[in-house]
Amino acid sequence: MRNKTIGIIGGMGPESTSDFYLELTRMSQEKCSQRPSIIIHSLPIEFSVEEGFIKKGTGKKEFLKWLRESVEMIEDIVDFIVIPCNTAHIFIEELRKLTKKPILSITEETAKVCSENNFKKVGLLATTLTLRNKLYEKELKQFGIEMITLDKVEQKILSDIIHRIVLGEETTKDQDVLEKMVGKLRINDAESIILGCTDLQILLNKNLGIEVIDSMHTLVEATFRKLLFLEGKKLCR
Question: Is the pLDDT at 214 greater than 90, yes or no?
Fold first, then answer.
């Protein structure tokens, strides 16, 4: 049986795509003593469209076009597809209808992890568009989990920070602000914090005094499990 190939649709942003690839590769090396077969297609994103998409929720037509073209480009040479970007999952059902290849959902997998940990109330840090489309609210509700979010002013600040991270222009001040946001959600009785944007793990990568569910890491683990299942393998270690 040939090795199965993972298709990664990335570029949203580039650093988180790179981190996803590296973490997945290292996991496969450590647990199965081999590197997985991976195809990465990075979307040709225009900065002005990206800024509007992150901050205001505009540019959806352009993003869907890029995502559709990406799926069509790689579907014949991969066995399943992952998209390490939470906000892009507002289009996941449309993309799933476009191809017969499975597309894993970062929000579905993250909600499962919250349920497995028996959380009843979680805080969410994500883009405005992710919140507006209730990507996590819908998934968490299926497990009876309550979701806490920031107020409108803080949410705008968060969107600005995420955009700077995507551009590689984040600052230590941004990190301090994010940590204070985590603290506020914790005060409001959140049992855990979901990093509902794969770029946030770049700044929130230390002990914050509360359990953190990193959606990117969750998708890495789900991708690895899917790969093992398709190849009919068990963990070597």
Answer: yes
